[in-house]
Amino acid sequence: MSTPRPNHAGIGMTSARTRDRLVQRLRDQGITNLSVLERIRNLPRHIFVDEALASRAYEDTALPIGWGQTISQPYIVARMTEALLAGGMPEKVLEVGFGCGYQTAVLAPFAQRIYSIERIEPLVKRARARLKELEIRNVKLKHGDGMKGWPTQAPFDGILVAAAPLTLPEALVKQLAPGGRLIVPVGPEGQQQLLRLTRRESGIHREVLGPVSFVPLLAGLG
Prior knowledge:
By secondary structure, the chain is of the alpha/beta class. The chain has a domain at 64-211: Rossmann fold (3-Layer(aba) Sandwich), CATH 3.40.50.150. Helix content is 26%, strand content 26%. The protein has helices at residues 16-28, 34-42, 74-85, 102-107, 121-133, 170-174, and strands at 63-66, 69-71, 92-96, 113-118, 139-143, 156-161, 176-186, 193-200, 203-211. The protein starts with 15 loop residues before the first helix and ends in an 11-residue tail after the last strand. Mean pLDDT is 92; it is low at 1-5.
């Protein structure tokens, strides 16, 4: 007997109408990439959080996922994805700190290959199950130290970091391909700025995209 597919459409507070309201809010906050907005509309965010929090999945807020981590606010996911795609569709992306896998799933249609690292092993297993459920096949997950990047797969056309180091990790900058873009929040709690660094012939071009609030990026394994 085949196992019934999980309810990805959602009901009540996870319904299409609720998702439409979220997308409108993201538009109101300045997200303009229609493909990113459509991806967020169609992706079942409620399957990435505990069932007790499913009714809040389409609020524009971060939610706890255990182990001191959170699923990022939809606006931040949209903002970072849009910032990464601003220079064109990347072929090869490194994602650091994928947590429950929601940002990974949002990004999946926009890159040929995604290499994702997470330091907390139970989150790796949970994210792997969710991506399999969604039939996302262009992502390779690894339990590892995101501070070090993924040297054996470098260079990357895009690097997206979903936790905040105190200072810019040079290992990640070195793994950027020519023309590659690194999207990373940097700084201590309460003083973080979202940065976009682009590798150009003349060197690394740095842009400040605005204030953000992320959990800290820690070295080592959880």
